[in-house]
Amino acid sequence: MSTATLHYIHDPLCGWCYAAQPLVGAVQAQLGDRLALRLHGGGLFGEPRHVDAELAQHIVHSDERIAQLSGQPFGEAYKQGLLADDGTVLYSLPPIAAMLAAGSLDAARAYPMLVAIQNAHYQRGLRVVEPAVLAELAEEIGLDGVRFALAFAAADGHAVFEHVEASRRLLDEVGGQGFPTLLLEIDGRRALLPHHHYYGRPDAFVQMLAAQLPALH
C-alpha cells in the first residue's frame, strides 16, 4: 500500500511559518487520514537574540506582509508588548524542544503544541522561550504538566540539537529555500510544494495536495 507523508520544515518563531499555519491545519483536518505529518524544527534563532529596534522594525514590516497575504492575526500584546520590549529574547530551541516533548508523550499532540506556541507568541505576546510558559501551553492542549516537564527536560539539550541539525540537513538535501519548506513524500519520492502560492487559500492548498495522493485501497 502506498504511504504518503507531508514533511514540514519550519520554525516556531518564523513569521512565514505562522502564515502557513492555516495551510497545514487544513491538511491535518481534511487529509489527516491519508497523509502523515512530520515536523522538522529548523532553528531559525539557534542562539538567543535580543529584539533590538532594528530587528523589531524588520519583523514589523514582515508581519504586515504576512497579515496581508495570509489573513493571520497579530495581537496587540505581541505588537505593542513583546516586540516593543528590548528585554524580549528570540530563541528557537526551547519551543522546538517543547514540540518534541509533546510528541514524545502523544504523537498527535506535536502539531497542536506548535500551533499553541505560534498563537501564544503572535497573538498573546507570551514569552514562549520560557519553560514555564511552554508548560502552561502543554497543559492547555491537554498534556499532563508533570509528565511534560520531564519530557521537556529530556528534549532540551542534546536531543533538540540533533533534531535541528537533522532538519537543516533535510532542508539542504531537498533544496529548500528556508522556512517554511513543505515537502510531499510518496513511496520514498519527495517533491517540494509551492506553498507560497496558497497563502490565504487553505482549501485550494488541500485540493492541490489531494490530487497528488494515491487512491485509498
TrEMBL record:
It holds the Pfam family DSBA. InterPro entries: DSBA-like_thioredoxin_dom (IPR001853), Thioredoxin-like_sf (IPR036249). Residues 11-189 form the DSBA-like thioredoxin domain. This is DsbA family protein. It comes from Rhodanobacter lycopersici.
